[in-house]
Structure formats: C-alpha cells, structure tokens
C-alpha cells in the first residue's frame, strides 16, 4: 500500500455544504472507490484558506482522483462543481502533495 495526498480548493462559504454532500456520499461511488483499491480515505479542511487536504491509501497505481472516465465519478464531479474550483471537465483542481515525513 502506498499513501497519496493531495489538495483541492473549496469556494468560500461552502464548508457546511461540502460536509453535507460527503456525509451522504452515494453508495455506488463508495463501492467504486473501494473496488479500485482505495482505503483509509480522509479529507480535511483548512478553514482559513478553504483548502481541502485529502489522503488515502492505494493498493495499486490509481487513486480516487484517477477515476474520471467512470460515469458515476463524472456525475459526482458535476454535482460538486458549484462549490469547488474545477477544471473544464468539472473535475476538481487537484494538486498532488509530496510526502516529506511519515511515522508508523
């Protein structure tokens, strides 16, 4: 397993809505993400900057941010596009982060 961390940007004023939508994450999306080998997935919010920080374990080469060709993911991205910074295809602007320290 390897760890993958990334950041995204939430539009100001949407922290509660972002949490609400993720608290009700679609079951088919959960199943898809888990079926690709992603586990131990968390997203944190820096409320001062509206920066979202995601971290997940990956049992392969692809993480949740690599599932954009799936129609379920495309539908989710469209659903979230009004509250996040996105690319032209509605995918969230995602910036991978370099790991500089880890302690087991």
TrEMBL record:
Keyword Isomerase appears in the UniProt entry: yes
One annotated Gene Ontology cellular component of this protein: cytoplasm
Matching SUPFAM superfamilies: Dimeric alpha+beta barrel
The EC number(s) this enzyme carries: 5.1.3.32
InterPro entries: Dimeric_a/b-barrel, L-rhamnose_mutarotase, Rham/fucose_mutarotase
Record flagged with keyword NADP: no
Record key words, sorted: Carbohydrate metabolism, Cytoplasm, Isomerase, Rhamnose metabolism
Coiled coil (residue ranges): none
Gene Ontology MF: a single term: L-rhamnose mutarotase activity
Organism superkingdom: Bacteria
Any one GO BP annotation for this protein: rhamnose catabolic process
Listed name of the protein: L-rhamnose mutarotase
Organism for this UniProt entry: Oceanispirochaeta crateris
Lineage per the UniProt record: Bacteria, Pseudomonadati, Spirochaetota, Spirochaetia, Spirochaetales
Encoding gene per record: rhaM
């Amino acid at each position: 397993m390897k760890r993958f961390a990334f950041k995204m940007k939430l539009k100001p004023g949407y922290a509660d809505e972002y949490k609400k939508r993720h608290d009700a994450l679609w079951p088919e999306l959960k199943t898809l993400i888990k079926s690709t080998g992603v586990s131990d997935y968390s997203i944190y919010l820096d409320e001062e900057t509206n920066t979202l920080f995601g971290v997940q374990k990956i049992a392969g080469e692809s993480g949740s941010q690599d599932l954009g060709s799936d129609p379920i993911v495309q539908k989710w991205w469209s659903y979230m596009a009004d509250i996040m910074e996105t690319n032209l295809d509605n995918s969230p602007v995602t910036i991978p982060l370099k790991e500089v320290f880890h302690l087991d």
